[in-house]
Amino acid sequence: MIALAPIAPSDLLHVSSSVAMIAVITCAIGFIALRLLAGRSITAMLTVVAAVTVATSLAGVGAIAVLMLASAGDRQVMLELLAIAGLAGFVVALFLGRKISSASRLLLGAVQEVGETGHYEPPQVTLPAELSGLSEGLTVAHERLAQGRERERALESSRRELVAWVSHDLRTPLAGVRAMAEALEDGVVRDYETVSNYHTQIRREADRLTTMIDDLFELSRIHAGALRLSRRMVGLDDLVAEALASTEPLARAKGVRLQGSAVRGLPVMVDAGEFGRALRNLVTNAIRHTPSDGLVQVQGEVDRGAALVSVADACGGIPNESLPRVFDVAFRGETARTPADDGGAGLGLSIARGIVEAHAGQIAVKNSGPGCLFVIRLPLAHAAAPARPVYAGRHG
Questions:
Q1: Is 233 within a domain?
Q2: Interatomic CA distance for residues 109 and 103, integer angstroms
Q3: Are 281 and 351 in contact (CB under 8 A)?
Q4: Are 145 and 181 in contact (CB under 8 A)?
Q5: Which domain CATH number covers 318?
Q6: What is the pLDDT of residues 171-222, one digit of tens each?
Q7: Domain residues for 261?
Q8: Which one of 87, 140, 270, 396 is most buried, counting C-beta atoms within 10 A?
Q9: DSSP one-letter string for 79-124
Q10: 3-state DSSP assignment of residue 233
Q11: Of 7-11, 71-75, 303-307, 388-392, where does the model show the most confidence?
């Protein structure tokens, strides 16, 4: 049994101050060592922490043992026990440090493999909570980067396709204009009727080129985020009526029946000019792809708290594999590169999507009935109760 000697208050005060001084010195040495080892492994830093803890404990308990234990043998036993406890602390610190270092190396190896494989594969071991959170963060970041690279590749492919399509579509009318201008200049054609036809055709081709350039400019503003909207309260029925009126000549020339209706007074906060352009692009696209005597219908209504505009055509449908690309730049759903007689560079639907999304809306397409159904969803300007549909127009 260990015999304890009484301790005088003065001795206890002396021991406490001495132990405190030793603790301060030991901690200071530990902080200096940690700063020097800042770039080293976690194992080395944990060893320093364990050494500071053990040294401070040995100093304090050792000093108390000397004062309280009367027997030299008892003091030796106490110090041996402290040494064993300190050694155990060192072993645990080394084990923990090696485990964390090993997990860190595995995580670093997984990150380095991304440069070779292009894919981040988290280490298949149990990581400490902090490293596990870091690994999850790396997984999310890698997925976002992968999505960004995929979008960039798709955009670059779209740009290349746009350059190829537009360069062809610009050359075609320019070649015709040049040939007719040379014929007029060289006097190859002299009769009034032919000359008049050439002048009309030149003007028509110039209009087509102007439309294509306007589309390119609008698309460039959308992609650059430079589209500026001047929003105001507009009735959806007015927008539908204006779209029908502006596309009526094209429908009549092609023999397509054009019908439309919208809820009267349904308010939307839009840029009337830009949104009207998007709606006209959808209707024009529907007319172009609808055969003669086919029907194009435009509807404006309320659906689940949003304004809904739908454009249905009779184009015969789009292959399912092509539906995701309908709004891509220069998509026409055909391999032919020759532009239609009514012009256009395949940018109308892309422009429509950009304008709708700039209005915080959504646009989608699906096969429905004899053709396709394009649907625009827009936030309402304020809560509005559905009113009776009003006839907006019918042409055919």
A1: yes
A2: 10
A3: yes
A4: no
A5: 3.30.565.10
A6: 778 888 888 888 888 888 888 888 888 898 888 888 888 888 888 888 778 8
A7: 229-395
A8: 270
A9: HHHHHHHHHHHHHHHHHHHHHHHHHHHHHHHHHHHHHHHSS----S
A10: strand
A11: 303-307
